């Protein structure tokens, strides 16, 4: 199978060397013949780092398993194979007045991938993570057994598999509870804010009044404009469309340019134009769901604009009581390093708890930045962002990561050993080998030295 189909979305890591079709991997697992560390489920490659890669073994192409098995139009419970794309779930449920309770920034993720990463959206303050709406899942492990996992069956495996980054086995299918909505359309309002202080003054009230809330930051603005941006709030429109668009991207970056197109002059001009266009009216307007939830899906392969070296995405969350000090510090670190972020997003996480053993969202504010890969210069900046977030009692998102150190991971997820204890021995990722396994080796050496 062609390795070009099995890379990460950030393009900064090497694509998988080997891939195996889902049916072959399932047969291998059922026979109990999968070797240690040989497998990792691969969805649609929308993870930015190496949590979807397995340099030591093979990735399992789950995309052919894309059948929607059942849907209850009364309760909104939908069962589908793990390779089913979110866009197809939306299209199937929309005519009945249902929509996923949580959607990430792209509709081109698989059901299994959304569960494995416990993704979040613009309404965490109300609905929590994707895992909060998983009713049950089926998991195939290397002992040859298929496990039904839920809040009442195989409870520990259920918690470890949600947010477990594919390490507990192969998710075959899942049942999720969708949210009833009056329409797919969104009544959207845009509010300008002069600086981060004004944003923080607006944020909690915006969450209380709206289903969805997210802010865009003009990361390059300095002086009096530092921290300025736009706060987008939205709710499903009472009267609107129930027609989903499966067509996907109408524009595409067909050829990867030999250099990073998203350079500082471009970003400065883009930010000014974006702020003017999106912020020129504070009057609520009705918009299609695609533009509100998945704006970047409108340009297929937009990640190629970063050039052959790709990009790094950094997402951190910091406690609410420290956010007014730490979020500006993160943005200042990027400015001092001379690095421009094409997409800078700030939003507030609520207190809805995920059933996941390891889940990135937690109460506080989360900042996402995209940087072109400029080698060591960029890696130094990312390490500094890690330090600022972790020292503040925050965390760094593993499924957006391609380079964090073991210590950053352990500080972000102190319960990582509980996932390691439930990890299927046949499954591992390059991310887990780079972080958790090195921590384990380090602890083993420390014990031997005592």
TrEMBL record:
It holds the Pfam family FAD_binding_4. InterPro entries: FAD-bd_PCMH, FAD-bd_PCMH-like_sf, FAD-bd_PCMH_sub2, FAD_lactone_oxidase-like, Oxid_FAD_bind_N. Gene3D superfamilies: 3.30.465.10. GO terms for molecular function: FAD binding; oxidoreductase activity, acting on the CH-OH group of donors, oxygen as acceptor. Keywords: FAD, Flavoprotein. Residues 1-181 form the FAD-binding PCMH-type domain. This is FAD linked oxidase. It comes from Mesorhizobium plurifarium.
């Amino acid at each position: 199978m062609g390795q070009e189909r099995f890379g990460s979305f950030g393009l900064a890591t090497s694509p998988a060397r080997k891939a195996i079709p889902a049916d072959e991997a399932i047969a291998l697992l059922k026979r109990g013949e999968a070797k240690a560390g040989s497998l990792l489920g691969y969805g649609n490659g929308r993870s930015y780092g190496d949590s979807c890669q397995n340099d030591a073994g093979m990735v399992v192409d789950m995309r052919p398993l894309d059948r929607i098995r059942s849907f209850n139009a009364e309760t909104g419970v939908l069962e589908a194979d793990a390779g089913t794309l979110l866009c197809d779930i939306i299209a199937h449920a929309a005519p009945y007045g249902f929509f996923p309770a949580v959607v990430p920034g792209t509709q081109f993720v698989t059901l299994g991938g959304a569960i494995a990463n416990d993704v979040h959206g613009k309404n965490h303050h109300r609905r929590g993570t994707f895992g909060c709406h998983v009713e049950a899942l089926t998991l195939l492990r290397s002992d040859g057994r298929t496990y039904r996992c839920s809040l009442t069956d195989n409870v520990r495996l259920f918690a470890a598999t949600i947010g477990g980054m594919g390490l507990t086995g192969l998710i075959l299918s899942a049942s999720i509870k969708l949210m009833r909505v009056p329409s797919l359309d969104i009544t959207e309002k845009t509010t300008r804010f002069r600086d981060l202080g004004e944003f923080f003054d607006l944020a909690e009230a915006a969450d209380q009044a709206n289903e969805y809330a997210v802010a865009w930051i003009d990361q390059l603005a300095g002086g009096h404009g530092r921290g300025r941006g736009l706060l987008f709030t939205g709710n499903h429109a009472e009267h609107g469309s129930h027609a989903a668009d499966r067509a996907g991207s109408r524009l595409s970056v067909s050829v990867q340019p030999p250099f990073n197109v998203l350079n500082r002059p471009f970003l400065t001009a883009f930010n000014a134009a974006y702020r003017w266009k999106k912020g020129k009216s504070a009057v609520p307007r009705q918009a299609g769901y695609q533009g509100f939830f998945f704006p970047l899906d409108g340009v297929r392969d937009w990640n190629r604009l970063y050039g052959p070296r790709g990009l790094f995405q950094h997402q951190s969350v910091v406690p609410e009581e420290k956010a007014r000090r730490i979020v500006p510090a993160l943005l200042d670190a990027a400015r001092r390093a001379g690095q421009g972020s094409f997409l800078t997003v700030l939003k507030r996480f609520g207190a809805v708890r995920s059933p996941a053993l390891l889940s990135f969202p937690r109460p506080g504010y989360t900042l996402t930045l995209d940087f072109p890969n400029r080698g060591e210069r960029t890696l130094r900046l990312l390490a500094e962002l890690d330090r600022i977030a972790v020292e503040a009692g925050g965390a760094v998102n593993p499924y957006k990561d391609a380079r964090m150190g073991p210590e950053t991971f352990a500080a972000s997820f102190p319960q990582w050993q509980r996932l390691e204890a439930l990890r299927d021995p046949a499954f591992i990722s390059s991310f887990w080998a780079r972080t958790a396994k090195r921590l384990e080796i380090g602890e083993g050496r420390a014990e031997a030295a005592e």
